[in-house]
Amino acid sequence: MTDMNRRNMLQAAGAMTVGAVAGCATPGVAGNAARTAFNVPATTIPVSGTDEMFPVRRIYCIGRNYAAHAREMGSDPTREPPFFFQKPTDAIQNVAPGTLADHPYPSLTRNYHYEVELVAALSRGGSNIPIERALEHVYGYAVGLDMTRRDLQRAMGDEKKPWEIGKSFDRSAPIGPLHRVANVGHFTNGAIWLKVNGQVRQNATLNHMIWSVAEQVARLSLANELFPGDIIFSGTPENVGPVVRGDRIDCHIDGLPDLSIRIV
Predict the structure, then answer these.
(1) What is the per-residue pLDDT for 8?
(2) Cβ atoms of residues 95 and 260 within 8 Å
(3) Shortest CA distance to 193 belongs to which of 254, 235, 263, 121?
(4) Short-list 226, 106, 74, CA closest to 174
(5) Does residue 254 register a pLDDT over 80?
(6) 10 DSSP assignment
(7) Which residues pair with 199 in a beta bridge?
(8) 201 φ/ψ angles, rounded to the nearest 5 degrees
(9) SS3 178
(10) Tens digits of per-residue pLDDT, 17-30?
């Protein structure tokens, strides 16, 4: 065997070894070329003013983050620490500005509630994020709705059971497009309101939040490592209430386009 042939054989063997190693994914790590049994559509939110889409990883929601709403839900806002729950990514319903989107009345409930909220989207992750650095992780903001099957939520709460069935269902998170911090800045004050059929139902300002967006990011990062693609629904003001088929909901936060849906 010539030196050239021997060298070619060794190179081929080395390439096969590298290929075999690359094809063996370590536990919890997917290879770039991994074949999946089927495709799962990604959940994304349009980024205003661009052709980009924001990929959604997790949806976090803070509960009872406005004092008056905490009181109407039966808790004491002066003593209760922040708590969070999650929605599945398929709760997202994208609603374009200037449109009236049809929103289906969900199954199982007879008491379907609106909750208008400021949504913060993260482009950086981390654990134990200090409050003074937390806003550096925020990519942009949007107007969102945390729609709630209130009767199911309360029934589960009364039985001391998890109440995801009241919060975590298909299209329970209508949302407008994201607006980048570079364009709109951060939202710490300004009006937030919601109308049903033209009548004001919720009306407050963002500085009525008990826990600011920065504090929410910092607190969440103590419990879970945050990642790019995580979004946070930052709580709703008082006067949540029911809607029925045919009702129109209009949502507003100063500095962002309104969000409008019709219950069908």
Answers:
(1) 46
(2) yes
(3) 254
(4) 106
(5) yes
(6) H
(7) 196
(8) -110, -45
(9) strand
(10) 333 333 344 344 44
